[in-house]
């Protein structure tokens, strides 16, 4: 557990030890049900609810559907909670609903995506990572490792945060980059990566935007064409299997944005705000942290437990 998380947990335990009416907090996230990344975020939300005693309701659309997500935010506003946590993958689609929450006097904290628009929409702060900066760092690292021709595989086209990751990667990498759009079906992702590798033997780098949905299929695709060790593979986010590939030398690194904190901290901050009017003075960067072979073994178990 990070020092920040320990400090917040202690503050929450002290602050909520006395009997009081439980805070009502609603979380509306864009993550799809079959994406393991969001189960870790939800674990953070549930841990914060347990630590603060707040009543927390986690909601998300069944698919990447901004109309449905805006409706979920509108429904949350109508319930007049003590706080609202939102991810903002598409500010144009979700902005009006978020601004309605702010206009209604509901404190809003954004998490995961939306760091570039949260303040102008009225959010108190954002918990997450700067996606462009993280993508740029990944591109620079893979170029430093010898990559010259890459694909950036986007499993959620239309999610501004993922688009920013590829844009940052393109700038940092400096070589030839093709963006490969796909969906969140690992089998299709693997097939598309394999097809790209077979059609262009010059590809020596694969950048994934999610460990379970892209990183793991990328490792499988590279193995299927017999190029394990020849193609550099990096991904955003973590999974136990991809981290094992990093530890084994079959992949280069994973970028950890510590999504557990993205669930935990906004709920805790809003509960403290509802009770005492306390709020941090600025955004909280939860990442990026580069997990390479020397660190991967330490993180595998926590990833399997749904914490990293």
Automatic annotation (TrEMBL):
It comes from the Bacteria. GO terms for cellular component: outer membrane-bounded periplasmic space. This is Substrate-binding domain-containing protein. It is found in: Periplasm. The keyword Nuclease does not apply. Residues 1-22 form the signal peptide. SUPFAM superfamilies: Periplasmic binding protein-like I (SSF53822). CDD domains: PBP1_ABC_sugar_binding-like. Belongs to the bacterial solute-binding protein 2 family. GO terms for molecular function: carbohydrate binding. PANTHER family: ABC TRANSPORTER PERIPLASMIC-BINDING PROTEIN YPHF, D-XYLOSE-BINDING PERIPLASMIC PROTEIN. InterPro entries: Bact_Solute-Bind_Prot2, Peripla_BP_I, SBP_2_dom.
């Amino acid at each position: 557990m990070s020092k920040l998380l320990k400090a917040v947990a202690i503050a929450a335990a002290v602050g909520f030890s006395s009997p009081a009416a439980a805070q009502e907090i609603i979380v509306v996230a864009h993550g799809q049900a079959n994406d393991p990344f969001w189960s870790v975020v939800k674990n953070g939300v549930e841990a914060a609810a347990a630590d603060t005693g707040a009543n927390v309701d986690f909601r998300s659309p069944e698919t990447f559907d901004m109309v449905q997500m805006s409706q979920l935010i509108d429904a949350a506003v109508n319930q007049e909670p003590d706080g609202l946590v939102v991810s903002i993958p598409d500010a144009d689609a979700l902005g009006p609903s978020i601004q309605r929450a702010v206009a209604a006097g509901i404190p809003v904290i954004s998490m995961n995506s939306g760091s570039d628009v949260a303040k102008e929409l009225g959010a108190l702060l954002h918990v997450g990572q700067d996606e462009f900066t993280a993508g740029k760092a990944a591109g620079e690292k893979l170029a430093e490792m010898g990559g010259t021709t890459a694909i950036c595989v986007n499993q959620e086209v239309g999610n501004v945060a993922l688009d920013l990751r590829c844009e940052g990667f393109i700038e940092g990498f400096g070589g030839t980059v093709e963006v490969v759009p796909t969906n969140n079906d690992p089998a299709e992702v693997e097939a598309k990566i394999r097809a790209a590798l077979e059609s262009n033997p010059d590809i020596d780098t694969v950048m994934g935007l999610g460990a379970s949905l892209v990183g793991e299929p990328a490792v499988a695709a590279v193995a299927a064409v017999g190029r394990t060790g020849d193609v550099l593979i990096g991904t955003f986010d973590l999974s136990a299997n991809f981290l094992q590939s990093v530890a084994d030398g079959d992949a280069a690194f994973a970028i950890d944005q510590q999504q557990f904190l993205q669930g935990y901290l906004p709920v805790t901050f809003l509960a403290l705000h509802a009770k005492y009017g306390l709020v941090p003075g600025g955004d909280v960067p939860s990442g990026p942290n580069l997990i390479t072979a020397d660190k991967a073994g330490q993180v595998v178990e926590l990833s399997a437990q749904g914490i990293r």
